[in-house]
Design goal:
Strand order of the largest sheet: 4-3-2-1-5-6-7-8
Shape: elongated
Helix content: 40-55%
Number of strands: 8
Radius of gyration: 26 Å
Number of helices: 13
Structural class: alpha+beta
Largest sheet: 8 strands, antiparallel
Order of helices and strands: HHHEEEEHHHHHEEEEHHHHH
Length: 444
Amino acid sequence: MSGRTTGNAGAAYRAIWRWHFYAGLFCVPFVIVLALTGSTYLFKPQVEAWLERSYDGIGGTGASASAAAQVGAALAAVPGSSLRSYEVRADAADAARVTVAGPDGDVRVFVHPRSAAVLGMVPEDERLMQVVKTIHGELLIGDSGAILVELAASWAIVMIVTGLYLWWPRKAAGLAGVLYPRLKQGGRQFWRDLHAVIGIWVSAFALCLLLSGLPWTNVWGGAFKDIKQATGMTGGKQDWKAGMAAHVHHDHAPGGHGAHPAGVPDSFDAMVAAVRPLRLPPPVLIQPPSDRWPKSPDWVARSDTQNRPQRVMLVLDPATGAVVRREGFGDSHLVDRIVGYGIAAHEGQLFGPLNQALGVLTALSLIGLSVTGYVMWWQRRPDGRLGAPPAPDGRIGVGLAVLILALAVFLPVLGASLIAIALFEWLVLRRVRPVSIWLGLRTA
């Protein structure tokens, strides 16, 4: 649609085009970082298994050290530590993986299965996949980074929704440039086609990724949790967390389980013996009673698989080590199950290698959108100006206003940013003529 379009439809089109431009301008750096880290994290099980391969199958023959002795060796290796979790390996010849809470944070300790000698240690925060996850969730800058990621995700949703509107074929004579690019076209037409076609094919997957990531965020996730509690949408233990809690000790303390200062009970080996034959989806963790809210006196064993619909939690008798209760994914509230399916798909574990392949394809497509969008902007930018689409010269209409309000309410960080941008534009940007002209808020 050309700049000659008049009336509400023309004003709405210009406004949406302008939103799409600024959303892309803000999102592109974050989209690239999130796409790279997210596509890497999809392969967490394979990467961690490869990195720790030297600790597998080393037990040989002969009697194994007791699980309690392995835990004791790990605790002794980190003075002042307490037990966080013990991983029950499917193969008893693998080195024990014991996570302890030390004075400076959680440490993963590898213990020889027969001699109980400590083979290696690594702080949890320094493990490769944990670093990738922390970058993905908070950009390595804590709460501020988490808010930035949530803001970028919110604006990325705006970018996709507005992009679909701009893509919608109004005068197309065929599918060329709509569902497949006209590769023989040169210049701007080629890059426009490539940008639009990649966008339409990836939009559904990208929206699923963005929406399924919202429960982890600080503001949206925290509000969602409060709404669930206020409306009674609870049942069973919620195994996902919002905000910083989703990135701190999450992999080794799901469900709020904390460290155990007194080591392990006499029944600890019986616990391991009861759990190992059940062949729960790995990793399988035995964890001490919770010292976090809500506190619990129970020792538990749980499958911490990233394919959350397969997760199982077993409550163990601390006197005998026997399993006294079993809770599965189906025991959770419907809302938690829906979120669990979304998170499992987000992490690439819901339906195996195909899930990972779709995640990688989506990530590469988002990077492709970022690159083609940058090229399009570079080709059309005027000298001395940002090159933003012209501001609308009429009313945007009730429909678009309702859509803006709905997005602002659904995505509160987006809503807050819209208010801040509007105030800053009105109070500052429009009053500084050179800046206003550079941004396209007024003509020269």
